[in-house]
Every structure is written in C-alpha cells, then in structure tokens.
Amino acid sequence: MYEWCGYSTYGTSGYRERTKEFEDYPIPIFFSEFGCNLIRPRPFTEVSALYGNKMATVWSGGLAYMYFEEENEYGVVRINDDGEVDILPDFKNLENEFKKAHPKGTTHEQYLTALENQKTEKNNECPNIATGIWEANEKLPGTPDKTRCNCLDKILPCSVVPFGAEAGKYEEYFGYLCSKVDCSDIQANGQTGTYGEFSDCSVEQKLSLQLSKLYYKIGSNDRHCPLNDRNVFFNLESLQPLPKDSICENVLDFVKNITCSDGRCSKPDLVRSKQSLKVKNPSNNEKKNDSPIAYKTSGFIILLISVVSAGVLL
Question: Which residue range or ranges hold the X8 domain (predicted)?
C-alpha cells in the first residue's frame, strides 16, 4: 500500500477508502507492504494511522518495505563498501513512529464473537464466478515443484539462457514455438483453474521445453536446435544417462510422451546416445590430425598474402 506519501493524512491518502472496503472482511488482514518513497527520507507518518483507532479495528498492522537499500531506493539500511550496515534516516524515522504506536490486541474469543456477528449480519462468501464481477477460479495452482523444474535443465536437449535487454524475444519465440507444438503444459489460467504440468517453472525453462519438443518433432539427429539465437544452445548434459526411476527420468518420459502423442516424432531420435551425436564432436586423435592441416593452410594463406603484397609494391 503506497498511497500515503510523505506527510499525507488518513483522509487524503486513500487509506480511508481502503479501510472502508475491508471493514466487514471476516479474516485478519494487514499491509504486506507500505512506505511510499516519493519523499526521502521517508517520515513514515502512516504508521500512526495504521495502528490508530480508525484503522486498527480493521487492519492488523503492516510491513514496511524494505530493509536493504537497492536501486529502487526503498531501503532503511545500506551495505557499505566494507560490507558493514549503515543505518539510513528512514530507519530512525520508522523506529520513532513505531515507538509512538500503541495497538490493542484482540483475543481469540473476541475474534470468534465478532466473526459470528458478521456472519449473521452479512454474507461474506465470495461471489459466483461471473465476467466483470468475480473471475477468479476456486481452484488454485499447486505448490511450485523446484526439483521437477530443475530436471528440465538436465534432460532437455535445447536450453535457453536469459535474454536480458532483449526480453522482447520471449514473446516472439513463444509465439513461434507454440504454433508448432502444444504449449498447454506451461500455461496457467486463473479464470478457468487450469494449470499446465510445468506452469510453475521459470520462463527460460518453459521456453527450453517447447524448443526441445520441436527438436524432437523435427527428428533432428545433430546438435542444432531449431532456433538460431546466441542465447540458445545444445545442452550436453542431456546426453548423460539418468538413474533408473529417478525424478528426472520420469520427467523426461513425460515430456516425450506428451510430445509424441500424435505419433509424429522420429522414434530413433528420442533415444539419443553419445554415439549418434559423436560426429559433431571430433575425437582427440582427429583433432591432432587436423592440427597440421590447419597450420599448413594458415601458412599458405600468409605466403599468398605476402606474394600479393610484393606484387602491389612492385
């Protein structure tokens, strides 16, 4: 909640309207963030209102954002060049405002009594799903599974690293790949309550997954991923054998099954061994045999340049 900036007031900041909106809410609520930084150092005068009589009966306090100073300039302390913590004026102001606050707690019995009274007076149930009124589905996504997502970094033949300043490529590449393969396994829709198997993974992992699915479908038999970009590379780790019945092996089987459910994948390329890809990686002996050729070729080119240069000078 960043509506209170500098020396604003309960009436002019918007706090009054927010409090009115939640005055009959049946569960405890609090400000997960507060601390507008349009004025620095921040005086944090909103603390007195948040813990005062007008708001304490509705709100259960709040959390000032944030502790360490970063580029966004919301911190109350800063790490100096020596790795030590420097206290900023914002910290002192927040400390002083908290010292002035004297909120009164609510016992469990008081809360239950108030809750029962609210139930008899008003219906606090969420409204039925309706366009423009309440579009959030009751079905929530599952807890993110970091282990399963990390498996994608190991098993997928094509990997993507962050695009940084070229973030616009995400939309472009997803648009292209999702026109070639089924991307429902990474999509999440809070309105319909449908969440793909890998919808909780990072954007790079999601893009790598779709790119690898296209690699499988095309039936590539080399280390060239079907997207020419410096941030896309063939993942050599995917060539390593996986422990039988491991989480990553199960994830790989799942990816292959959903990719080739229509029978369009080239079967031999789904089981890609080191031998099948060895042609792209010369052996040490091959490298040694190639070296003299490289040096001879370079010497010939240097000699040719010298002759041409001499002719020009003559």
Answer: 156-250
